[in-house]
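go over this:
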Amino acid sequence: MQRYLTAEVPGTGGIIKNSPEDFIVEEVPAYQPSGQGEHCFATVEKRGITTLEAVRRLSKALGVQERDIGYAGMKDAVGITRQTISIPRVAPEKVLALEIPGIRVLAAVKHGNKLRLGHLKGNRFEIRVRDVAPGALANADAALKVLVGRGVPNRFGAQRYGVQGNTHDIGAAMLRRDFKAAIDILIGDPEQVSDERWREAISAYRAGDLAGSLALYPGHFRVERELLSRLLQRPDAFERAFHAVQPRMKRLYLSAFQSSLFDAVLEQRLETFDRVEAGDVAFKHENGACFLVQDAAAEAPRALSFEISPTGPMFGCTMMAAQGLQGDLEARILAAEGLTPESFNLSGGLRMEGERRPLRVPLSSASVREEGNDLLFDFSLPRGAYATCVLSEIMKDH
């Protein structure tokens, strides 16, 4: 069960993402387009579609290969998102004239290079939390003060682990080369889904009725259907069947497992996540560089001023390891999974090198106001951090 940094502050309760207007995200770009070059930087507002779906629709409308279109951040389908997308060899005027369902082009300017993932400073959020509890404004304000002062726990949280909350378990099974378990977990648990036909398909698989499960799965469950088709041909060839999963999805499962271990480490360090200790690998918030802390007392003022923060592991085969108590903690958590850093040295383009991730992130430009029974939040977070981590600390059992 998740612990809260703001545990002493009562939760506001409430509901988020009731309508697209309740959750507005705007990218803070790392740089502005120059006005010259072969790429068109289009600032778009998308509603009710993912970044990848927006890219697909732009590709189709402009006759450009999807792989040639760039973006700095992945955004989900819920809410309204304003982000920049780069498109090669197309005039800004043509982009501005587009009329595409779910997408509105706000600006288009030329630039010299393609946008890459991570080419942004962060994101600004405008979020409405509806139907909060009495006294919510004072509690929200108190929680925000803690988060601004100490930082936001840099969790991944539930949204990282898929609809059934199990993508990290698939990644763990892959690393252990237990492909039967990976398929079992991917097919899932009937108790975790609400759609009746989907539940029946999972139940049939669990009962050993592969043909019946295949017949029940709707056509858009492509991965599950292909897995079942392969198992029907060779019921015990689990690794062969797992080849049906696209490499992009395999990397997602492995990344989700890395994320779950990071969250586990953060949970153990929550009381001291804003202080550096000897053996910590510290993160410089200005440029993302990391270094091993030798003298904790000498580095303490830099942590207090939020110049640096301790990190947790995104485990991999070449990740910089912590030492001291933090190193012991990370080693125990990885060993409990029956894995070593070398376990992440996978073939087939799935090698996970690993990296360090700060245990906390700064919360800036944070404010909250009341409107009827709702609270309206404005705040900014650096790239890679989730607004839900802020909201969970404020709302508690939402």
